[in-house]
Amino acid sequence: MSEATFAAVDLGASSGRVMAGHLRPGSVELVELRRFPNRPVRVAGTLHWDVLGLYGNVLDGLRGAPPGLVSVGVDSWAVDYGLLDSAGRLIGNPVHYRDSRTDGVMERVRAELGDDLLYRVSGLQFLPFNTIYQLAADDLSRASTLLLIPDLLGYWLTGEVGAERTNASTTGLLDVRDGAWSRELLEKLGVPAGILPPLREPGEVIGPVRADVAAETGHPGLRVVAVGSHDTASAVAAVPATTERFAYISCGTWSLVGVELDAPVLTEESRRANFTNEGGVDGKVRYLRNVMGLWLLQESLRAWGDPDLPALLDEAARVPGLRRLVDPDDPEFLPPGDMPARIAAHCRRRGYPEPAGPAETVRCILDSLALAHRVTLREAARLSGREIDVVHLVGGGSRNDLLCRLTADAAGLPVVAGPVEATALGNVLTQARAHGVVGDLADARALVAATQPLRRWEPSGDESAWAAAAADLGLER
Ligand code: ADP
Ligand code: LRH
Questions:
Q1: Mutational pocket test of ligand 2: of 166, 254, 394, the residue with most ligand atoms within 8 Å of the beta carbon
Q2: For the domain with range 4-229, which CATH number is right: 3.10.20.30, 3.40.190.150, 3.30.420.40, 3.40.50.2000?
Q3: Taking the complete model, does pTM exceed 0.90, yes or no?
């Protein structure tokens, strides 16, 4: 294999980055070109993404990339979208999935269409912000085209429209059985089918960058390639698994906890457990459930004026464990707000003592997340029939030693932590595979396993306190 360099644009809900990925025989190396915060902006009561600010940062990042890039790929958080008018102009700023416009909408759509139909067709977990519910709350009268966030950026870079499949699978409008947009759901919802662009696969060339983008970034002829444009799909593609019997936790703003399968699980039990069948790279199924994740910590840090995280985690590690717990998936934690106050009130309601100060609050959050990881891993195994020998925890959360250790203890399974930048790696490796410099998915994962710093956490061996806590909270079914 010769050398090749690819650029990955990875937009997470808390921060974005542009990375260069250098591939040489037996090696993949990421170099950060630009990192920037992703801060939602509330405008006249509505919570928006600053999508032009993000795009500006993408252009700046690409400008700093070395010459000779083979291609660039874009991934981001799921479900959110921009609407284009008939002239291809963006109608308004994309709305954040945590905005309150969807309050009560999911319940209405579920009552009208029925859970059975929705799950049978899309295989998607019921989350109030899924695109399908956002559309039911939106004004589509001037919309000609809907583009999910990475597809919108791809459009601005190339002028080409399309819907990359892994991210399209998070809309609730894609039929998990035949992989096409569901005419049945679109009709029932009154969403014009024409606004949904043709689907594209990870690895497909979207096109060369527009002339103005080439001039602005200094990369004439740069090609944009579709990757697993749902960030979680790219993260799972780079999980350093060396066996089939693995589970993953893609741990950042959210914890996405599950297994990789060849076919969806659409049973009633699975629907009741609110498990999702999202599309993975290579047609795999990401069978998982969203756990509220480090959002609880991020939002608490914001409330405390952003103190030093490593110091706070050290303090939290010295706080006695399992004294205070919340159900992190309680919908009350979804919107932005005073998270420490919500956590304290939740503890009180559940009969636990309130955390006194940040260290106890952080310990409560991490114990609660580890417990939710345990419960979700066990359910994923039970509902899918997949046995799990090891849990790969990837993303920013893999830097949190306390969370990794607690997750290993709670789940009673070894946790392999890293890579931190799994999503950018998955993005780069999908481009490298399309370019023919890396083989199949297993080869890509083996390369990650052999080259990236990973740490292994063995479980303590006694899960009884965790099992009791899960029962106490009513989480273990
Ligand atoms: P997203 O892609 O959703 O924006 P990331 O994968 O970038 O999320 O992960 C962000 C999270 O990583 C932060 O919320 C924080 O909890 C965690 N993190 C970042 N740096 C550190 C650190 N030095 N120690 C522990 N945790 C960290
Ligand atoms: C993680 C993520 C997750 C979605 C959520 C909206 O960044 O893409 O997979 O459920 O954002």
A1: 254
A2: 3.30.420.40
A3: yes
Half-sphere exposure of 246 (CA within 13 A, CB side): 23
Residue 9 and residue 153 in contact, taking contact as beta carbons nearer than 8 Å: yes
Residue segments in the chain with a per-residue pLDDT below the cut of 50: none
pLDDT attached to residue 477: 60
Return the ligand 1 atom nearest residue 14 CA: 4
State the residue for tokens 């990192």.
Answer: 35
Q: Say if CB 238 and CB 419 are below 8 A apart.
A: yes
- Output phi, psi for 464, to 5 deg: -60, -40
Q: Is 253's C-beta closer than 6 angstroms to any atom of ligand 2?
A: yes
CATH fourth-level superfamily of 234-418+454-476: ATPase, nucleotide binding domain (3.30.420.40)
CB 466 within 8 A of CB 409: yes
Write the DSSP symbol of residue 46. Answer: E
Q: Do domains 4-229 and 234-418+454-476 have the same CATH topology?
A: yes
How does pLDDT run across 79-88, given as a tens digit for each residue?
A: 999 999 999 9
Q: pLDDT tens digits, residue range 172-197? A: 999 999 999 999 999 999 999 999 99
Residue whose CA is at the smallest distance from ligand 2 atom 6:
78
Q: Which residues contact 252 (CB under 8 A, 6 or more apart)?
A: 12, 13, 14, 293, 294, 395, 396, 397
Q: Which of 138, 231, 282, 367 is catalytic?
A: 231
φ and ψ at residue 51, rounded to 5 degrees: -70, -30
pLDDT tens by residue, 270-318: 999 999 999 999 999 999 999 999 999 999 999 999 999 999 999 999 9
Query: So what's the pLDDT on residue 476?
Result: 80
SS (H, E, C) 304-356: CCCCCHHHHHHHHHCCCCCCCCCCCCCHHHCCCCCHHHHHHHHHHHCCCCCCC
Of all protein residues, whose CA lies closest to atom 2 belonging to ligand 2?
77
